[in-house]
Amino acid sequence: MAKRDEARIDPRGRKVKILATIGPASRSPEMLRRLFRAGADCFRLNMSHGSHADHAEAVRTIRALEKEFARPIAILADLQGPKLRVGAFAGGEAVIRHGSHFTLDRDETPGDSDRVCLPHPELFGILQRGQRLLINDGKIRLVVREADGDRIRCSAEVGGVISDRKGVNVPDAEVPIPALTEKDRRDLAFAMEQGADWIALSFVQRPEDIAEARKLMGREGALCAKIEKPQAVKRLSEIIELADGIMVARGDLGVELEPFEVPPLQKRIVNASRIAGKPVVVATQMLESMIESPMPTRAEVSDVANAVYDGADAVMLSAESAAGDWPEESVAMMDRIAGQVERDEGYTERVRFLETLPDETTSDALAHACMTIADTVPISAITVFTSSGATARRVARERPATPMLVLTPSMRTARRLGLLWGAHPVATRDIGSFEEMIGKGRRMALRHGFGTAGSKLIALAGVPFGTPGATNLLHIVTLSGEELKQRGG
User: Fold this and answer.
1) pLDDT grade, residue 468 (50/70/90)?
2) Which of 14, 15, 17, 44 is catalytic?
3) Residue among 17, 226, 412, 440 flagged as catalytic
4) Does the reported pTM lie above 0.85?
5) Which of 284, 386, 402, 471 is catalytic?
6) Does the N-terminal or the C-terminal CB of the chain have fewer CB atoms within 10 Å?
7) Residue 375 half-sphere exposure, CB side, CA atoms within 13 Å?
8) For 344-369, what is the mean pLDDT?
9) Is 85 one of the annotated active-site residues of the chain?
10) Is 284 a catalytic residue?
């Protein structure tokens, strides 16, 4: 019994989800367990770092936690994507003077303060005068003066020390390379074998990038498009339509755009994703100072809080939980920030400031009705029966003040819902009749702490049962408190 009580950590008491990145600081089974208990709802495997063996061990640990706590946990595998880098320098580094001329060419001879090899032939010939090249996360800024098939001659708008194989960003042009490298294809195949619930696709520039990854994934897993390039922003609506979820990857966005452009763009991406009913994650540097400090800055706390107020489905920790000195404390801090925001009496009004009008379908009308009823009558939970998760996404799109208990016969669906706002997913046996649905909804609500004797529940489902996209039934029930006793607990 002690173990069962220890495992009763849900419901979380908040609706926004926390996505924690796994790394050297958090890979051990004990630390992953502590992160989960501290508030992590889902875990990110960063395929840019670590071996397949490391990631496979993490997956085994997470699946063991699922069994221990009887709660589905989402795993997101984040693909590295193409990395554009300069070549090597004589002596390992050089100094580019402010205002000087600097050339990127195809000559593999070690570079100096005047030139260096750029081992990416696809970049030659596509760049035009006035376009920028950003090196080492934008610390060095070059402006193209002349470009042909062999050389890109630039002037240094911002110079500095440049060393071997530093990264290159090309913010002003669409780079004619696919989002998936050979490494990404191997990592994607590995992630699919491991049963990853979400795949995050980097370097997305166009809808075709989504289609290519989807073809390789087949029907397995859900696809999260990382918006980190200006070219993706230009075709945002098309990318959102094709993806299952969106990540606001502020790291590269903050390099390729001016810093002050990122906050309004973040809100635009979050809003567009919410209107489409697709989960949206806000990521990168949310509690960056907690890599080294046990406490965040006030600005970081405000950053997390604003993402929660905007109605993001999830907020993400990167190096804070992967390689920092305070991984557990970072998760706990994010949990406390989110909880405090959601307890704010103005939170519901703020999170609904965005108008998400229902489509002209029965499913959307009923999902909208759930929110209206819960605003009018004291409701302890909206109990959603779903096989694909579509009904849960429709309800979450309305951002109801009432928690959502999602019952599904599919563990795959239950895990994917780990990134969905307000959803507490439970994998359970399928239902076959209206009476069975009502009985199971009552028992699960009591068992998972979503009501007591006298509590009212909304039950939302589709008839015939097990038919995806057939949401057409809404029913309100009152708990007697004796449902578990009647079934023997």
Assistant:
1) low
2) 44
3) 226
4) yes
5) 284
6) N
7) 12
8) 91
9) yes
10) yes
